Amino acid sequence: MLEYRNFVKKLVFPLETLPLNLVISGAVTEAFALAIFVVGLLLARGAVPVSMLWLPLLIVRSFC
Fold first, then answer.
1. 0.70 exceeded by the pTM?
2. Which residues contact 41 (CB under 8 A, 6 or more apart)?
3. Which of 6, 11, 26, 44 has the most CB atoms within 10 Å of its CB?
4. What does the alpha-carbon distance between residue 42 and residue 52 come to, in Å, rounded to a whole number?
5. In this structure, are residues 54 and 34 in contact, taking their beta carbons and an 8 Å threshold?
């Protein structure tokens, strides 16, 4: 954003949405990574451990 500050100054949008956009994009990236991780676990071990049920809760907790 610092490189394109003149461009950003010309746009009219609420600046309060920028942190929300960062959180949502991070959550989507994390969801894709979690899906790939679960598929990898299924391929490597044939099952997903029960302790994996805590992982989504930990991820949500890290965003709050």
1. no
2. 47, 48, 49, 52
3. 26
4. 12
5. no
